[in-house]
Amino acid sequence: MTDKKVVLLCGSPRQDGNTRQILDECASIIRASGVEAEVIPLGLMQIRSCIACRKCQEQGTCVLDDGLGDVIEKVREADGLIAGAPVYFGTARGRYDGRSAADRDGLQGEGISSPGRLGGPVVVARRGRQTSSLQEMVMFFLSNDMIVPGSLSWNMLFGGNPGDIWKDEEGIQGIRRFAENVAELIKRI
Fold first, then answer.
1. Is the CB of residue 22 less than 8 Å from the CB of residue 175?
2. Is 17 helix (H, G, I), strand (E, B) or coil?
């Protein structure tokens, strides 16, 4: 095991849903590559949106005591970040749609941006509309000076009921490759 670490944020409110299942798979692949991995279930937290009080700029931490500050600190200490979100009604939903965490972290000074940090998004939907959600989430990574590794295809899966994603063999293969690439590149940096 190296001293490198990847944090995986799960935005799904379903503890055993498809988003959590694929992030657990990514974490297993990353660990098998010798890199530490931790899945954090944001979907089970009551994350509040930024209130723009700017106290974080004075104090260095957010005044909203909902646990997101601890998560942001773990992300800042990690070498990689993978964010997973379910897509409901055409856009990323759940606790990780990129907005609450990104807005609150962005005001806290340096934020999670760190040249050379790796990561990227994973989205899951029943039938479609993942593309715009994936694009929005990729923009978060790119605008925070992060490196987004490629894979065999887009990091999206089809699956409605828990476990349905495993029927999307092409999608699973692509996301497994993405997790392998994240781990391998982190070890090289």
1. yes
2. coil
Distance between CA atoms of residues 183 and 37, nearest Å: 10
Q: How many domains does the chain have?
A: 1
CATH number for the domain harbouring residue 47: 3.40.50.360
Q: How far apart are CA 31 and CA 104, in angstroms?
A: 29
Structure tokens at 4: 């490198």
Pairing of strands 118-125, 156-158: parallel
N residues, the chain: 189
The boundaries of the domain holding residue 175 are 5-188
Predicted structure pTM score: 0.89
DSSP H or E stretch at residue 119? strand 118-125
* Confidence tier at 107 by pLDDT (50, 70, 90): very low
